[in-house]
Amino acid sequence: MTAQWAQANPNTHLAVLRALIRANMWLDENAGANRAEAVKILSRSDYVGADEAILANSMTGAFEYEKGDRRPAPDFNIFFHHFATYPYYSDAVWYLSQMRRWGQINEAKDDAWFADTAKRVYRPDIYLKAARSLVDDGLAKESDFPWDTDGCRAPANEFIDGVPYDGRKPNEYLKLFPIGLKENQTVQGTDITGQAADKTPLATGHLRRQPGKGN
Q: Does 30 map to a domain?
């Protein structure tokens, strides 16, 4: 939804948020007991329209990584637990950092730009207003929502690449990757111009892999 629509329809906006929060609660409650029903709904042609077995593969507590290799994976998809529906600024900053890394954002941006852009799009104030109404109506618990957060998750290093991420310092995060744009680097045609502080050569448009560092 657009900001213009949300401003013109504040009550409907809150009602939609309430419905989305409740739907995600329903998907995770009772250890995912409702997932099988959700799979049936999603398999309908007016929704996803995929085979139930395919949808169930990631929705119902186990995952088949390859044929015959099926393992328990109760948290493969999380919809509400761990504050999954909360619009953390740090999540938005991570998406923006990837857009910068891969050239969709071509110019260098300071950390304040990342934070300000995230705050224009992610609106925890509106989310918490919807959450408060659910608590007041007895449809959710106070502990279901992170009322006191500043909008950023704690720094983490749980991504598959093992690179630590702090949403308050996106440029420091980008510097940890030997591949991808950082600092004053830009894409000009098929080449990368500019030079990072680590002196990575860029004339060919490719960043040289440095020993001891991952991707």
A: yes
Instruction: Please indicate, yes or no, if residue 66 is contained in any of the structural domains.
Output: yes
Domains held by the chain: number: 2
Query: How far is it, in rounded angstroms, from Cα 195 to Cα 201?
Result: 7
- The neighbouring-strand residues paired with 66 are 69
Q: Which two tokens stand for residue 5?
A: 């629509």
Name the nearest CA neighbour of 15 among 121, 100, 139: 139
Contact call for residues 126 and 14 (beta carbons, < 8 A): yes
How many other C-beta atoms are found inside a 10 Å radius of the C-beta of residue 79? 19
pLDDT-wise least confident of 84-98, 169-183, 197-211: 197-211
Q: Residues with Cβ < 8 Å from 58, sequence gap 6 or more?
A: 73, 76, 77
Residue 58, domain extent = 7-72
Residues forming beta bridges with residue 63, ordered by sequence position: 71
Read off the pTM. 0.83
Average pLDDT of the segment spanning 85-111: 97
